[in-house]
Amino acid sequence: MGGLHIRAALSLGALYAWFDAAADFLMTYSPFHFIADANVSVGVRFSMDIWFVTVQISVEIGARLSLMGPPLRGIVHVDFWVFGFDIAFGDPAGAAQSLDISFQDFWDLVTQAESSSSKRVEAGGKAAHLFSCNKGLLAQETEKDSKPDDKGLVGEKDKDVKANDTWLVRSGVFQFTIECQFAVQLVTVNNKKALEPQSVTIDDIYAKPMRLSERIDSTLSVTIGGPDNSTSVWKATSAWKDVPQALWGQYKESEDPNVSRPGSDFSNLLNSGGSMCRLIMGVVIEAPIPQVSLDNMPEYCVDKAMKNNIFDDGNEPKFQENVDESTAFAPLPRTLGAENWTALREAWEASPDPRLAVDMWEDIFKTTGLVKTKPTKLIDHNADLYLSAPLLGKTWPREGLQKDDETAFPHIE
Q1: What's the pLDDT tens digit per position in 344-353?
Q2: Chain centre to alpha carbon of residue 325
Q3: Does the reported pTM lie above 0.70?
Q4: N or C: which end of the chain has fewer CB within 10 A?
């Protein structure tokens, strides 16, 4: 609603003149209907003293225009101080037309706000619910992202998720919102009631354009299933929003300027406050909290486990038999007693001079100062340095030896 009042006055001694203009406008949002009044008044007054008597002479001319519609109609009233008359225009039958709207019209009215950046579920040609991811959304790699360009470089992943794309999310922090275009009184997720807002008073749902004085019951039911059709406990919290009273407020006939009757009270229309109400317009859903497994590990005895046979008797696997290595690389057979130490000494004494091998070692590793003689102390005291006589290996054929001649050289094992 809106209004305006202007007054201008002029006083010059016994002469006084004035000009008044006022306008008031009332409008119904849906269905659209308005009532407007405008009036203009011009007057002059002259005071004259005659002896002991004061005589006042005044003249006033005014006009008032009353409009309403649709359909457009109205009345013009002209006031000539001592008499006046009315002029009506428009369709007088328009006042008898019903201003009620159907539920389908109300649905179209509240769902006309659409979002192109969110996933929509179409209902009746309008966006009934808007889905948006708050946390945990990951960038998806498309076929275009994985192909190199002309320079052989692979570009970054497309981070803009389109409305109809499937979400790729991180389960630990995943959170999304379902925004309803139509207000709801109750929200359930997997048959469990969502948490209500704290320290906030939620109003009842009405449909003022439909002229309903009784509240509307509206429920949002969300079902989230797993791969095996199982339902987990998702954390859900109802989301509220301030919405216009002109849409969701309670209709009162006594406050309807279109139905002017004795006892009507339009004082609330002059109050600029209270134009909004708080209703549940969606739900915020978070992924279930991970739970510790209830499977308890039984007591485990390592000693008993080592003694148990993992195979049943008679079903043990058969391992492949070992194949003996070539006898040509086997050491000489061991003898008993002191003959082992004697054979070891004789083999050391009969071994070639180590000077050639030591020279090659120094040349390869670029070093000097190595001893190039046999370890005489080791040969003389081998019985004191070893717990048992080392085995002797065979080297053949060699220049000066026949193939069948087995010459012993030290071979420690």
Answers
A1: 888 888 888 8
A2: 68
A3: no
A4: C
